[in-house]
Design a protein that fits this description.
five-stranded antiparallel beta sheet, 18 helices
């Protein structure tokens, strides 16, 4: 039905086996580089890959057999509508195949990431990590001391000849007048990692010693499975839609394997569960601290699961100053913003300073996010020479990038505080990552709503691609976004109205495409919220001809 050539018996099975064999080889290579405790996870990922790939390939063959190729059947009475449905099913099947291939990356990264609190050997691994960090700290100090005394790294007992040459090359590239083998910020960062690792060890050790108990509520019960490190909620009957929505907003996810709503067993999870109306204990009273577990360190006023911190001057950290600015914690965006506004007008935020190692002015006032359980934190705003810079660290962290609450916080920060610029890392022609400073209004922002020309241009390009899929060309896309940004900037509300009409036309032309409809709705919202200057349409009207003197 799809080819003039005959099918070779067994070729599909051979193709499947080759793919699974390659995945098994990747799994075996990964096992040789990680701790044996991760072997079970690697095997589980491999089994999932083999099962899902078989289902995907079988489904793909079934889809291809629905309608014959027009080259084989001919154009007379060809079922065009059925062929269109087949093409859409093929696209969905290919998208699923790409997601399945992502399991190979998970196999390659198994055991290579951070140490999860779910890991039963977490404390042991953290202690081993702490020992390595402390040993590295002493080694860097010893190397710096040797260099101060001898003014050379030749013969340094803490460095191999190769390492010594690498340090010399790094010092030669350093912009400082009197460079050191290991600059102060490296020692500071490593010391911060040591403190953070010690805190995690203390927290996990205290957690192991805590006896958690569940409670009964009307229509079910809450259990704490310490073995699997999960807080589980069991309902006697299927909950209604409002309850399910409340559970999802509380960070719980439905787990069919155990028949319960569950999330990781943390102080924040227990606090959230004890304050949800649908999980209120039968006694009608809040649980005591002993029953509910330890009180979380950063109470969340908005229920998003994220708190905030302020560092008055981050430069004191980079310079390893004696009186470093303290890390100030805040439970809500309102309190953090009030403190930020109080410090924002301070003169030091606008004063000129020597560029840092990246050639940019140093960060001063800092606003950041931190999870309630203390496992995640990231800066989101730096003030550099009087301008607010968006920090894009969240784009490289999946847990932050995929969290809708984090995106809502960034959108609110853009509205109520504002960003002037953003530091973007882009891939250069030679394959390396290059830093560029982009005005926030022109930044291609695919992450959170910001009502900027760059965000609108990015959504519009994505809508065009969904309506008429073409091979991805990053260079062409960048040029298109720049043109649309310029069009919006020059035309103001006139350009916004023209884009809105174009979006309506595209949406009307693809009524059955759910993705196009959703993108068009999001883009219409961005356009309606965009505050464009009223540049009168007079400049877009055709100029009147002047009468000649003779006439």
């Amino acid at each position: 039905m799809t080819s003039f050539s005959d099918y070779v018996p067994g070729s599909a099975t051979a193709e499947y086996r080759r793919a699974v064999d390659q995945a098994a080889e990747i799994a075996e290579q990964q096992k040789q580089t990680v701790d044996p405790i991760h072997y079970e996870k690697i095997d589980r990922l491999l089994d999932t890959y083999a099962r899902k790939l078989a289902e995907n390939m079988n489904q793909g063959y079934a889809i291809s057999a629905r309608v014959p190729s027009i080259l084989v059947a001919g154009g007379s009475n060809f079922p065009v509508r059925k062929k269109e449905k087949q093409n859409r099913a093929t696209d969905a099947n290919m998208t699923e195949w790409q997601q399945i291939q992502g399991l190979l990356d998970k196999i390659r990264s198994a055991g290579m990431g951070g140490i999860s609190a779910d890991d039963p050997e977490a404390v042991r691994k953290l202690k081993a990590k702490l020992a390595g960090l402390e040993q590295e700290q002493e080694r860097m100090k010893a190397v710096n001391a040797y260099y101060r005394k001898h003014r050379t790294l030749d013969g340094c007992p803490q460095l191999t000849p190769v390492e010594a040459e690498q340090r010399k090359a790094a010092m030669a590239r350093n912009w400082r007048a009197d460079p050191k083998p290991y600059e102060s910020y490296l020692l500071t960062n490593n010391n911060a990692n040591i403190r953070q690792t010690k805190k995690r060890i203390e927290k996990l050790s205290a957690k192991k010693e805590t006896e958690f108990e569940g409670w009964a509520f009307e229509g079910g019960e809450v259990k704490m499975d310490v073995q699997s490190n999960r807080l589980q909620v069991f309902f006697h009957e299927k909950p209604d839609r409002d309850t399910c929505s409340a559970m999802r907003h509380g960070g719980f996810r439905w787990a069919p394997s155990v028949g319960a709503w569950q999330r990781q067993l943390t102080n924040n999870a227990i606090w959230t569960a004890t304050h949800m109306d649908c999980l209120r204990p039968l006694s009608g009273e809040q649980l005591t601290q002993e029953q509910a577990g330890p009180v979380r360190e950063v109470p969340q006023g908005d229920g998003s699961g994220w708190g905030f911190y302020i560092i008055a001057d981050l430069k004191t950290w980079a310079d390893n100053a004696e009186n470093r600015s303290p890390l100030e914690h805040f439970p809500s965006f309102e309190t953090a913003k009030a403190r930020f506004d109080e410090l924002r007008s301070a003169p030091y935020n606008s004063e000129a300073a020597e560029p840092g190692p990246d050639g940019q002015s140093p960060a001063r006032l800092t606003l950041g996010l931190e999870s309630a359980d203390g496992t995640s934190a990231a800066d989101i705003l730096h003030v550099r020479q009087g301008e607010n810079y968006l920090v894009t660290d969240f784009t490289r962290t999946e847990g932050l990038r995929d969290d809708s609450a984090v995106m809502d916080i960034l959108a609110r920060t853009a509205r109520e505080i504002g960003f002037d610029r953003v530091r973007v890392w882009e891939q250069a022609s030679d394959g390396r990552q290059a830093l560029s400073i982009v005005p926030f209004a022109e930044w291609d922002n695919p992450y959170f709503a910001a009502n900027t020309p760059g965000r609108i241009a990015a959504l519009y390009c994505e809508l065009l691609h969904r309506c008429d899929p073409l091979p991805e060309d990053r260079g062409l896309r960048k040029e298109q976004i720049a043109e649309i940004v310029q069009f919006i900037r020059q035309g103001g509300k006139y350009s916004v109205r023209q884009l809105s009409l174009a979006v309506s036309t595209l949406r009307a032309g693809h009524p059955d495409n759910t993705t196009v409809q959703e993108l068009a709705s999001a883009l219409k919202t961005e356009l309606s919220n965009y505050s464009a200057p009223e540049q009168d349409t007079v400049q877009h009207q055709k100029p009147k001809h002047k009468k000649s003197p003779e006439r």
